[in-house]
Amino acid sequence: MIKKILKIILLVLIVGLIAVQFFNRPDKSTTTEVTPAHITKVMTVPANVESILKRSCFDCHSNHTTWPWYSSLAPVSWLVADDVEHGRKKMNFSEWTKLSEAKREARLNEICEEIKADEMPMPNYLLLHSEAKLSQADKDILCNWVETELKKLEDKAE
Ligand code: HEC
Questions:
Q1: What is residue 54's three-state secondary structure?
Q2: Ligand 1 atom closest to the CA of 142, numbered from 1
């Protein structure tokens, strides 16, 4: 009896999982295009800084997202797409100039804070992207860069 119920539950789950693939397919956009709005076009981004951002942040904070295979599989696809959507909305390195000057300054500040506190890259992302983990050296490079760029912005404002 219990075996039979378990079989039915399993069947329902499998059918449900298949059915769910057919609706709400997230928009998985990505591009290699670097437009004039790109952070590298309006700020000094040294090669070592850019490579860290690319490796650890671009999947969610740029339009150059590499969508993994499991991002085609609902319901995981919804979770992944949600992180990318919110990440881009908050701070998109591909569309940096769309942020106001004040927001750019705030985001730069937050970059150093978030990585020091190990809040970014998102911990659940690191489970499947161990290469994105930041070393202490990576953090120092990013924070020093942030400091230099913030100083430039302040000098400009004076
Ligand atoms: C897996 C996706 C993902 C990755 C990878 C990622 N982020 Fe985020 N990030 C997000 C999301 C989602 C938010 C928005 C959180 C919110 O609105 O509460 C965010 C927010 C932020 C913010 C704004 C913080 C705030 O105060 O709300 C900063 C700064 C940030 N991320 C920096 C980074 C940096 C730097 C990296 C790389 C070292 C990185 N993120 C990697 C998804 C990601």
A1: helix
A2: 35
